[in-house]
Predict the structure.
Amino acid sequence: MNTLIDTLRNTVGAAHVLTHDDPATDLSAWEQDWRKRSQGQALAVVRPGNTAEVAAVVRACAAAGTSIVPQGGNTGLVVGSVPDGSGTQVVLSLTRLNAVRAIDTANLTMTVEAGCILQSLQETAEKAGFLFPLSLAAEGSCTIGGNLGTNAGGTQVVRYGNTRDLCLGLEVVTAQGEVWHGLSGLRKDNTGYDLRDLFIGSEGTLGVITAATMKLYPFPAAQLTAWAAVPSLDAAVALLGLAHQHLGAGLTGFEVMGQFALSLVDRHFPQLRVPLWSEHPYCVLLENSDNESEAHARTQFERLLEAALEQGVVTDAVVAESLGQANQLWHIRESIPLAQAEEGLNIKHDISIPVSSIPSFCAATDALLQSEIPGVRLVNFGHLGDGNLHYNVQAPASGVYAGDPQAFLREQEDRVNTLVFEQVKRFEGSISAEHGVGSLKADKLPHYKDPVALALMRQIKQALDPQNLMNPGRVLL
Ligand SMILES: Cc1cc2nc3c(=O)[nH]c(=O)nc-3n(C[C@H](O)[C@H](O)[C@H](O)COP(=O)(O)OP(=O)(O)OC[C@H]3O[C@@H](n4cnc5c(N)ncnc54)[C@H](O)[C@@H]3O)c2cc1C
């Protein structure tokens, strides 16, 4: 093994190969996942500085039969970016590949390296006068390589799509250590199989993304945010239909938040002053991005809300008067996971259901969970605009689990997951809308994925990574 470590040191420089041999080196930032569900042990953490070095590292690991875990910001939520506990895997950290290689304003693209932090790319685009619309709460830490690896979603999918929809080309180091130069900025290219789409969302199991050409958009002249109380989920879906009709492509955000989810924010972060939550079962956060002017955006919003109030799909609403107020409203939405954590451990789901079926899915699944575990509390919120719910389950406030959420997780997590996932299957949804499969859900795929699709995925993995060295045990077991 020392020969491999020596080769890696010669390849990327000794300072960029971290091992446990030096007791003063703390590798936990690379070995523990964000949710603290898994603490692995790496043979080494290797931090190459360019694509040629990544390729050389992959070739050296392939020759030694050593598996590789590609890692960006390590913010993934499904235990996909940390090593297992064997002490035999190399963590390949991409964070030193952080250059913006080019901005092509006429082509509306930027070509960036995999380790660029998402927020820095938003800022780079803005400085050049453009919008890079990928946005998620982890944007200060996650990398574009990780976003591509997981096909991340976020808050603007209703308008701009997932990371996949924002990407035109990739540069990838294959499992054999070859470089695929696919950094095309083309919007049309029908010359065979789409390799780009194959690597996006593959969670590091097929190759290492080293750079990407991403789409840019004109910066909107105005962005307005509204907070609306709705009497039911059916009404929230009806409001979404009206919003599409009135705002067209201007609709860039549509988030739903259940009353219990907002009550947790109110309890744990009272300074955020959550509006309208106490008397309404759901609230919706809407964003209108307008290419004309703020006045135009406001008029559009007023017309939408008037129509919604008339039809009874909205019972009360506020429109943010300033950017500061809009940010406060988004901050409330983004604080739900933190408020949940303050309340205690909970069982998290990241599911998608066709938007039209969301009200009946929630009614049926809420009732099922209540009948199985009386008093269970549902923290229901998410990106309703694209059919993605974070349908989380918190222990009952009283009874055997009161004050002991660990016991709730230990004893009920598998059962709750099965109940929820069976419902997802019944309603033709997905058990992982945006976070991916990683290790956490890999054992679930054989049950919830179409068997022909799964067999094709296995064949693709075998063809591209016959030694099974790229992030083994993730996605496919
Ligand atoms: C607070 C918070 C909020 C979040 N919100 C959202 C959200 O709204 N929407 C959403 O979709 N996700 C969300 N996530 C999870 C999301 O998957 C990540 O934040 C992000 O996409 C991962 O980027 P990363 O650089 O941290 O990747 P990592 O966590 O390092 O890696 C994630 C996966 O991608 C692989 N990978 C990483 N880099 C590469 C590469 N260069 N080439 C090939 N494979 C690679 C890894 O092996 C791993 O399987 C959130 C996470 C947190 C902590």
